[in-house]
What does this fold into?
Amino acid sequence: MDFIEPGKNQLLEINPELVVWTAIIFVFLVVVLWKSAWKPIIKAIDDRNSKIKKDLEYAQIMKSETEKLESEQPNYYGKSS
It folds into this structure.
């Protein structure tokens, strides 16, 4: 068993075995997440994009209808006769 030597910082040492295992686990997790989570994430993003587009189109329609109604109505509060 390795004991910590006084004055030596083991956090800054590179352990080749640890590097290899970290890389293997990272690649494994990326593959698993790519297979299982990528499609639901992309679907959620696409659904959100389409909802935002619909909401923007609806807001534009409502704005134009509001402007039309404002132009048709007499100005009750701005001018008094």
